């Protein structure tokens, strides 16, 4: 009887255990997908340049660091080629299922701090026109990803002119002239080249500057705003009429550097007049138009036929004014003068005309 009672208790306990397990199993819910834990979301923009679409974005001010699951390691770039008639509105789910991962760009610790970064997507033009949709998303080493960036849509033009060729530089006192050859064809091989002008760029100490405000129609351009003693680098881009009539630049021409040195002598002083008075001869002349003229030297002789190199220098230092008074003269004597102009680089002009006057 006792054995029978113990056996019944064991059966009852087993039944309760099985029931509890069954009830627990009945309450189980479907697995919940992991939460997206990469919080930084980027914004992208893009332009076409030649046969490339150049994407640009700005990194976060700083990485999330150890206090967060996120530690950004890279950014993934996606592209979707769509027919022009495709709907403009597309959900992230639709984009994710149809787009292609075209690049992964590593992000180093030094890249943080709102640094602008770029990626160039090289295009091939074949078949019908297409609209390209780009997006990007940050990711970490664990494979966790942020939400997609904005979708950037662009319809690249195939008939964009090639870059100019054979860029040359010519230096003068007044300017550095950049010249180039026009491209013969477009990036898709079609002719004639689609050219509405050119943009000229100069690099100085790593800073890029466009020198023209509107596309230049000629195949040369004078840069008047330069300084001797500095180093510059120049290149040119062809400008074409793109999709929706917006201008599209080509890739860069060959870059050419120059470190201009001032070896150009100023013009000789001109329009000289002379006047004699008691114990004084005054000389007047027109100021040189060169902006780098340091001053003028005045030479004197009582013998007009004396070689110019032997004339007496009256100005130990170049004078900055365009007048000169010679008071070391004697009554009744005739004196002859000529002048030279000197610039800051040490270049000296040729001698001016010779003028003479007799002291009363």
Q: DSSP helix count?
A: 2
Secondary-structure element pattern, one letter each: HEEEHEEEEEEEEEEEEEEEEEEE
Helix content: under 10%
Give the averaged pLDDT, no decimals: 89
> What separation lies between the terminal Cα atoms?
162 Å
Shape: elongated
Main beta-sheet strand count, sense and barrel state: 5 strands, antiparallel
Helix/strand structural class: mainly beta
* Unreliable stretches: 1-38
Question: Can you describe this structure?
Answer:
- Helices cover 9% and strands 39% of the residues.
- With 360 residues, it is mostly beta strands.
- The strands form 6 sheets. Strands 10, 11, 13, 14 and 15 form a 5-stranded antiparallel sheet that branches. Strands 4-3-6-7 form a 4-stranded antiparallel sheet, covered by helices on one side.
- It is elongated and about 105 Å long.
Main attributes of the structure:
360 residues, mainly beta, 5-stranded antiparallel sheet, 9% helix, disordered N terminus
Compile the SSE list and pairings.
Layout: H1 2-26, E1 44-49, E2 52-58, E3 72-83, H2 92-98, E4 100-106, E5 116-122, E6 130-140, E7 152-154, E8 165-171, E9 176-181, E10 197-204, E11 207-210, E12 220-223, E13 232-241, E14 247-249, E15 256-258, E16 270-277, E17 280-286, E18 293-301, E19 312-313, E20 323-326, E21 334-343, E22 355-358
Antiparallel strand pairs: 1-2, 2-5, 3-4, 3-6, 6-7, 8-9, 9-12, 10-11, 10-13, 13-14, 13-15, 16-17, 17-20, 18-19, 18-21, 21-22
Question: How would you summarize this macromolecular structure in one to three sentences?
Answer:
With 360 residues, the protein is mainly beta.
């Amino acid at each position: 009887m006792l054995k029978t009672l113990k056996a019944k208790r064991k059966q009852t306990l087993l039944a309760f255990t099985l029931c509890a397990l069954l009830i627990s199993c009945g309450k189980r819910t479907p697995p919940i997908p992991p939460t997206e834990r990469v919080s930084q979301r980027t914004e992208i923009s893009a332009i076409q340049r030649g046969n490339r679409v150049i994407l640009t974005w700005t990194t976060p001010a700083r990485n999330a660091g150890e206090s967060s699951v996120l530690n950004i390691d890279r950014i993934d770039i996606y592209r979707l080629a769509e027919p022009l008639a495709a709907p403009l509105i597309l959900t992230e789910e639709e984009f994710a299922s149809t787009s292609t991962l075209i690049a992964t760009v590593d992000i180093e610790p030094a890249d943080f701090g709102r640094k602008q970064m770029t990626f160039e997507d090289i295009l091939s033009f074949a078949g019908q026109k297409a609209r390209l949709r780009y997006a990007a998303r940050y990711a970490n080493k664990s494979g966790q990803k942020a939400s997609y960036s904005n979708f950037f849509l662009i319809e690249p033009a195939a008939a964009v002119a090639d870059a100019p060729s054979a860029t040359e530089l010519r230096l003068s006192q007044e300017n550095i002239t950049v010249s180039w050859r026009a491209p013969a064809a477009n990036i898709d091989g079609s002719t004639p080249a689609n050219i509405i002008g050119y943009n000229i760029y100069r690099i100085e100490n790593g800073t890029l500057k466009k020198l023209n405000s509107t596309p230049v129609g000629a195949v040369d351009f004078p840069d008047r705003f330069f300084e001797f003693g500095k180093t510059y680098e120049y290149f040119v881009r062809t400008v074409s009429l793109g999709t929706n009539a917006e201008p599209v630049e080509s890739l860069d021409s060959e870059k050419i550097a120059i470190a201009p040195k001032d070896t150009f002598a100023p013009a000789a002083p001109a329009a000289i007049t002379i006047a004699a008075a008691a114990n004084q001869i005054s000389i007047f002349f027109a100021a040189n138009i060169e902006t780098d003229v340091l001053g003028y030297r005045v030479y004197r002789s009582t013998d007009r036929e004396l070689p110019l190199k032997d004339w007496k220098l009256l100005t130990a230092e170049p004078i900055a004014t365009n007048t000169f008074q010679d008071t070391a003269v004697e009554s009744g004597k005739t004196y002859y003068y000529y002048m030279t102009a000197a610039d800051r680089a040490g270049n000296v002009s040729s001698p001016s005309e010779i003028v003479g006057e007799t002291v009363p």
